[in-house]
Amino acid sequence: MYRGNLVEIAPAADIDSPDRAEYTRRLIEAVPRAAGQYL
Amino acid sequence: MTTTPDTPVLAIENYSLDYHTASGVFHALKNIDLAIHRGEILGLVGESGSGKTSLAWSIMRYLPKNAREPGGRILLSGENLLQKTDAEIEAFRGRRISMVFQDPSTSLNPTLSLGTQLAEVLVRHRGLTRQQAWKEGEAMLAHVGLKTPAAMMNRMPHEASGGEKQRVVIASAFACNPECIIFDEPTTALDVITARQILDLFVELQAETGVASLYISHDLALVSRTASRVAVIRRGDIVEQGAVRSIFANPQQDYTRELIAAVPDPSHRLVGDALATTDQPLVRVENVSVHYGRKPFLAALTGRKTERVAGNNAVSLSVNPGEILGIVGESGSGKSTLAKAMTGLNRFEGQIWFDGREIRNLGDMDNAYRKDVQIIFQHPDASLNPRQKIGEILSRPLKLFGDASNLDQKVGDMLEQVRLPRTHAQRYPHQLSGGEKQRVAIARAFASKPKLVICDEITSALDVSVQASIVQLLLELQKAVAPPTCSSPTTSTLSARSPTGSP
Questions:
Q1: Which residues of A touch B496 (CB under 8 A)?
Q2: Residue B408: is it exposed, middle or buried by C-beta count within 10 angstroms (0-12/13-18/19+)?
Q3: Can you give the pLDDT at residue B222?
Q4: A14 to chain B nearest CA, in Å?
Q5: Is A6 helix (H, G, I), strand (E, B) or coil?
Q6: Is B19 helix (H, G, I), strand (E, B) or coil?
């Protein structure tokens, strides 16, 4: 959801697919991953 | 006192802190030993109540009157802060050591403009004139990435977003080029995208200035991304400390292993990928819009146009029976607005179809609808009545929607279902931890055996380890009672489908 608009619905297992909308990809990118990811 | 290049900027040696309370002495910190050198970021991780913030207050010398320091030293570039007078500490704060708090809304004075607050630091600690300080403040706001620094200086805190306010607070913290800065969960109150930007800013400024930093967080993923060394604190004890890589790759203590294991891994899904398929969704939201701001009476009379803010714009989605639908988005994207519209807490335009019934407005949301559609909020502190005992709170949905006979037995059963002791029925919310309170809120939502449960960021106010247990509990209840759950937190771990919006 972005600024009150809903434009994408996707299976959660497929949420990090490169085909997702640009905003979805930005959200996924920003989420902190597992503790060891940044080592 | 003389210092050498090897002298840590901040050294805490065998430091202990007690709080004297009506129920006895509480040992908040026990023989703490920590050191931070110039250019270093030390991450301090632990759950709520482990003593992280008490340690920050001890360093900043902001202790309450019931605090006692039975032993130890806190040295800033070799000077023992425990031996300083109040006046000396006043001169230290802001100039030689500063702090960035969790919630920028509470760390800024709501009655003063952002510029006034930033300039005050520069006037007081760097001896600039007000005019010089204002000019310098503008330059600093530009430096922390605010696009319109001159306008931002004149804004009041309520006119800035959470991320903008936190940038102003960070600018204030770096204003006097201090030797040490304490960051106390600086991104917890922000959404993921803003948090990421603030974190990047912090890392950039830290590298630029070489300031020694203590980064306090319950989020191990964030700490592993920012800190060079990490200390793990539990019940006032530092149980383990060392280089980030060795702590995360080879934790020596069970508690550290538990903390690491509790961090959600988006690639590990707790539910199956199979989508529920049915011709008849349980709930269908069609073109639902929510607007805030009511037309003033005079404007309505004169036909003058007034600005209305859209919380949701013609949102359409559906949830099948037994399905978990995740809604994700930044702060202010309209997630909670939609949740409130669906539970009768916001007026809306459009239609909601629920279990074959058409809901056009709040008037259509009768007792039967409210029984079947329940909501769990983010902050259990705000959603549980502080004057009622847990037993009273849990018996209310039973009285309203169910069978009010044998209440004590049923309340006890509900508590056991959310893995709380039956005796908690006699307690007040303030006598429970954050995780326990959220379990009560979950029990209350499931009491009426609803068909749809809406979870509005129900774990974001909780520790990582508690979050995992709450999500697990919710999934168990969802299987047992089988309502679909419209949920926004930890979505990729939970949900079978995720709708998102795009610009």
A1: 11-12
A2: exposed
A3: 80
A4: 9
A5: coil
A6: strand
| pLDDT for the residue numbered B341 | 94
Q: Tell which A residues from 1 to 39 touch B, by Cβ distance under 8 Å.
A: 1-13, 15-16, 20-24, 26-39
- Supply the DSSP string of B284-318, one letter for each residue: EEEEEEEEE-PPPHHHHHHT-----EEEEEEEEEE
How remote is the C-alpha of B417 from its chain's centroid? 26
What are the distances in angstroms from CA B194 to CA B45, B142, B163, B198? 21, 17, 6, 6
Contact assignment for A38 to B221 by CB distance below 8 Å = yes
Residue B351 near residue B287, CB atoms below 8 Å: yes
Long-range contacts of B353-362 (CB under 8 A, 24+ apart): B353/B281, B353/B283, B353/B284, B353/B286, B354/B282, B354/B283, B354/B284, B354/B452, B355/B282, B355/B283, B355/B451, B356/B280
Q: Which of helix, strand or coil describes residue B470?
A: helix
Minimal CA–CA distance to A4: which of B334, B345, B387? B334
What does pLDDT average to over chain B? 87
The strand pairing partners of B16, in sequence order, are B71
Q: Give the confidence band of B192 by pLDDT, cuts at 50, 70, 90.
A: confident
Query: Out of B316, B338, B491, whose CB is closest to A12?
Result: B491
**Under an 8 A CB cutoff, do A9 and B495 touch?**
no
Domain boundaries B283-494, corresponding CATH code = 3.40.50.300
Q: What is the largest CA-CA distance in chain A?
A: 36
Residue of A nearest to B289 (CA): A4
Helix, strand, or coil (residue B499)? strand
**Amino acid, single-letter form, for residue B351:** Q
Yes or no: say if B234 and B250 are a contact pair by the CB < 8 Å rule: no
pLDDT at B412: 95
What's chain A's length in residues? 39
Contact B500 A10 (CB under 8 A): yes
Q: Which residues pair with residue A10 across a beta bridge?
A: B498
pLDDT of residue B276: 59
In chain B, where does the domain assigned CATH 3.40.50.300 lie? 283-494
Q: How much helix, strand and coil, in percent to the nearest 5, is found in chain A?
A: 30, 15, 55
DSSP classification of residue A3: T
Task: Give burial (CB, 10 Å; 0-12/13-18/19+) of B149.
Answer: buried
Q: For residue B332, what is the enclosing H or E element?
A: none
Place of tokens 């459009």: B350
CB contact under 8 A, B266 and A31: yes
Closest residue of chain A to B488, computed from CA coordinates: A1
Question: In this structure, which amino acid lies at residue B6?
Answer: D
